[in-house]
Structure formats: C-alpha cells, structure tokens
C-alpha cells in the first residue's frame, strides 16, 4: 500500500468482497545526496505524506499495516544495477526488473509468512486463467495500462496475484475512492512516478551524483568526423538530440550509438535511428517458452510509451530476434522489448547493444 489512490481502492474493494485483508508497505531507499527541495516532491511513494495516507486507509478498514524496511536490499537489487548499466552505456528500465526480482519476490515471501493465499496490487493489468496456466493481459484502460512493467513475471508470481483494477478505468477508480471515502484530494493529489528512487524528473542529475569518474570524449558522425565533445557517455541515451552542442550540421542529429570501449558517442540524422531488426537477451516468458528456431508472428513494444508494432520473432538459444514489419525508432540497449499475442504478453527480453552494430559503433554483444 503506497498510500496512493490505486492501492487504497484495491484494499477497499477486497475488504468489501469479504476477503481477510492485510496491508503491506515497503520503505525503499531514497537518495541521501538529492537536493533538499527534490526530497519533498509530491510524486514519490516513500515519504511521510504517503505513509500517513496508507495508515489512514488501513485504519478506515480496520486492517493491519505491515511496513518492511527494505532500503538496503532495494539499493543492492535495483539502484546499484541501474547505475552499473548506465555506466556500461545502456539505458535500463529498472521498474521492469524490480517488479519480479524485488517487489513481487518480497511480497511472496511475506505472503507465505502471513499465511495469505493471494497478493494484490494496484497495477492496471489483467491476469486470466488459461488451460496451461495464467496469462497476463493488457488493462482495459489502455491509457493507464501497466502490463509492460509486469512483463517479466512468471507463473510463480501470476498464480498468486490478483489485479482488481485491470478491468477499470482511472475515472472509475477515482469514483470508487470517493465512495469508499478515501482521504485523497483529487485536485492536489499527484501520482507517484516511475524511477521512485530518483527525486528529480530526469535521471541525469542522479547519475552525475553517483558516476563521478567519467571522462569527456568525442562525439562523432558515422564517417568518423569529430563534431563535439560529450561530458561522459553514461549521461546520454539513444535518440537524444538536446544537449549535444554539435551545431553547424546540415540537419539535426541524434545519438544513435554509444561505444563504451572507445568512449565515443556517434550521432546521425533522424533516419539512422530507424531499425527493423532488434536482438534481445535475458529472455523471460510468462507462460511457456516459445520453441527455438521457429518464426512467430507477434507484436512488440520497445518502451513503455511506444506503440505496439507487428513483426516476426525468432528465439535462438539464449537470444531472440524481432523483425518489425515497419522500422521502429530509437531501440535503446537495456530497455525491455515486450512480446504480445493480441492483448496477452508472451514474454520479455532486454534490447542488446548489438542492435546498433550496423553503424560500426558498438563492440559488445549484450547489455
């Protein structure tokens, strides 16, 4: 129970349905080096305000609230790998990895300890039972759909999880909050944002506090011409155009690849960001693995806010290749490529750095 409207409504719904409900809240790591003003932003989930909301809802429902201090565990399992991935030139999505390896893992452990049959969250996604297991589907409210962030969950987690908001819209959730008299002002309330451990809106300032041994290096075009100097490649990402300070080009250029070994950032016009073939590593499947060396007609999304695009996926050994029917823009190493069959999530892989090998800029084969 983060103290937000979604988890609060879930607790009320389950209580109304007659379930024996137990509230759970994690105290996660917060950046001790963040500016004081950033620490009081109303968009984070572990501050005094959200704690007070969670306590008020539990008091309203007459249910216990268990608060687990997992600050050190979260730092080691989520924050440190995020920094390490950025240091290697990738742009990871820690929320996708955190849900399975950290949040749901700890929830399952606590559920067993408390002898709870199921665990519930306020995510907007659906879980339905099929003949061969539990399927993860997109939410009814596509504008709020969060199934992308749950794409690495497996049968172990899906079989024990309920998502009461998966068939509801955000407006319906707010109406339920009013009916349950949850103490949240819809006009002043702000939802928590992704990357809960980063206080600012952008990760750049956070990374500059924790990656201090970077070196400046060249910014080059594809023909090898040096057109500028970067301040450290961990602070840049694929597709970035602003902040490059490489004026004088015939047309605007974007970051198309980052070469860690040579400490070089390569830039090119927009069209160089388009790619049809995306290789992924660290594959995970929600129900059952796809058969190797077979071509599957599926859809995929290369980032949370990207449009689902159709194409063909082939699973080979420990990696996979997704060939889109139409080129997609700025496939970024470290981000999750999520596979869909209709509304169902089939699996998830991490975009590998060799996706940009065709530009002659990358030398690593994995992220």
Beta-strand segment tally: 16
Distance between the termini: 33 Å
Shape: globular
Extract low-pLDDT stretches. Answer: 355-367
Which CATH class of the largest domain? Alpha Beta
Q: Over all CA atoms, what is the radius of gyration?
A: 22 Å
Question: What percent of residues are in strands?
Answer: 25-35%
Helical percentage = 10-25%
Order of helices and strands: HEHEHHEEEHEHHEEEEEEEEEE
Largest sheet: 6 strands, antiparallel, barrel
Give the integer mean of the pLDDT values: 90
CATH structural fold name of the largest domain = Rossmann fold
Count of DSSP helices? 7
Topology (elements, then pairings):
Layout: H1 5-16, E1 23-27, H2 48-61, E2 65-69, H3 71-87, H4 94-113, E3 119-120, E4 125-130, E5 133-138, H5 155-158, E6 161-162, H6 170-179, H7 203-210, E7 217-220, E8 226-230, E9 253-259, E10 264-269, E11 274-285, E12 295-301, E13 309-316, E14 319-329, E15 336-341, E16 344-351
Helix pairs in contact: 1-2, 1-6, 3-4
